[in-house]
Each structure stands twice: as C-alpha cells, then as structure tokens.
Amino acid sequence: MESKQTIEAVLQGKIALVTGGTKGIGKAIVKRLEQAGATVIVTARNQPNEPDATYSFIAADLSRAEEVNKVANAIHEQFGRIDILINNMGANTFPGGGFNTLTDEHWNQALQVNLLSSVRLDKALLPKMLEQKSGVIIHISSTSGQFPIWESTMAYSVAKSALNTYSKALATEVASKGVRVVTVSPGLNKTEAMTTFLEDYAQQAHITVEEMTSKLFERVGGVPIGRMAEPEETAELVYFLVSPAASYITGANLIIDGGNFPVVK
Asked: Which residues lie below 8 Å from residue 111, measured CB to CB, with a gap of 6+?
C-alpha cells in the first residue's frame, strides 16, 4: 500500500499552468496541484492577495490575444515547457433578460473570455506537449453549456457549449500523440463569483440572497445532494484527471453537479 507521502507526490516534477487561479475553483485547483508536488504557475488579470503564495504569477488578460502570447513566452523562457494546462478562466458577467438585452459586444466578450482564451492558450502551449509526447489539458466548462438558462446565462452558456465541442475535437486530434484533453463541467459551486451573482440578482428582484439561492436551485431542477459544491471538491476531480491514475481518460466531459443534471448522458 502506497504511503500518503508517495500519493501526495504523484505530480512531482510536473509543471502546471492554471488560468484564473487566484479565486474560486481555480484557487482550489492550484492548492491541490501544489499538494501533489507540482510546480504551479498562475495567471489572472489581478495580482493575488496572497503574500505567502508559493506559485509563480503572471498578470494577464487572456481575452486579449497579445496577452496570451505574453504568458506563453514567459513560460517558455522561464520553465521551457508545460505538462499540465488547466484552462479555468471564464465568467458570466453579461446582462440577464434574454436575447434582446445582449449586444454584439456582449456576445463577443463572452466568446473571448469563455472560449477563445482557451483556444489561443492551447495553440501556444500544445506544440511543446506534442514535442515531448506527453501532457494533459483540462477545460473547465459548466453544466450551463448543456443546460442554458435564458434569463441569466444565454451568452455564457453558448460560449461554454462551444468550448465543449472544441475540447472534444482537440482531444480526438491529439490523443494518439500522447496528450490528453478532458472537459470538466461543474454545477453550482460556492465561490466568490457565485456569491456576487446571487447578490446582484437578489437586489434586482428585491428579495434576500437566501430566497434567490432557493429560486436558483428550483430553476436548475434541484440539487439532490442539497447544497452547492465546495471549490475543493471540484479541484479534487481535476487533480485526479491530471494524475497518472486517469491515463485512459480523454475526450470526456465529466459533470460534477451533486446530481443536478436532469438527463442520462
């Protein structure tokens, strides 16, 4: 039986990049990968509020192509390669209310943040993975990509659905070349972004956050486990997928939603 120390060191020597890694699910993923021995690089728009952070940080807005190139160049110069790429960047910051509230700029921004940032970063870092014939790419999507809520997630859902399709196509292309590509679709997670989302909609509806949370659970069809996920629970799935234990998993879209998803896939 393996010791805890051996288990925790399964990513020793691996270099990982986590986008959007200073908050929420991304922050939890960073912590879990470091626990497993990986050298972790984090990129986000704003400097982390962690004076004792042990990871390397690159400030960048990955919705802009030139910023993606800046990150890729910095990684190649300092580290030479990436073994694990976690495309966690994403946001649902677009107006609710349906199609008539969304402008061309909203649609473009939704695609830049939730789809094209990952596409560009993959394109910049994947060649080195193919050269070394090993690597894992994880795209953090959302159950919204398959279960859109027109009142609040239309643009976000469309962009995540496109990410799901792109991820599957990329996985098929590179599987025989030693690189695995997997999608993770979280349901409701108790993050800072979710708290802000609930507070904003509660204010608009003139109800409490607790009432808004209950309405959200009802709108998505209920969560059998009865609560939102902790970010650390989603991070644990991501850790498993990048570990050698998941070496035969590629091209899949793994849903982690407390039983919420209403159909059999």
From this structure: 159, 162
Assigned CATH for 4-189+230-256:
3.40.50.720
Q: 185 with 254: CB under 8 angstroms? A: yes
Nearest to 152 by CA among 112, 196, 108: 196
Q: Which residues are catalytic?
A: 156
Region of residue 221 (left: phi > 0; alpha: psi -120 to 50; beta: else): left
| pTM: predicted TM-score of the whole model, two decimal places | 0.91
Residue 175 sits at the vertex; the CA angle it makes with 171 and 178, to the nearest 5 degrees, is 130
Please state the domain extents for the chain: 4-189+230-256, 190-228
List, edge to edge, every strand of the sheet that includes 84-87. 56-59, 39-44, 15-19, 84-87, 135-140, 179-186, 253-256
| DSSP per-residue letters across 79-134 | TS--SEEEE------S--SSGGG--HHHHHHHHIIIIIHHHHHHHHHHHHHHHHT-
Q: Give the model confidence (pLDDT) of 57-66 as tens digits.
A: 999 999 999 9
Burial class (CB in 10 A: 0-12, 13-18, 19+), 78: exposed
Task: Answer yes or no: is pLDDT of 8 > 50.
Answer: yes
The pLDDT tens digits of the residues spanning 134-192 come to 999 999 999 888 888 787 789 999 999 999 999 999 999 999 999 999 999 999 899 88
Beta-carbon contacts of residue 50 (< 8 Å; ≥ 6 apart): 22
pLDDT tens for residues 216-263? 888 888 889 988 899 999 999 999 999 999 999 999 999 999 988 777
Looking up tokens 């990410």 gives 163
Distance CA 102, CA 96 (A): 8
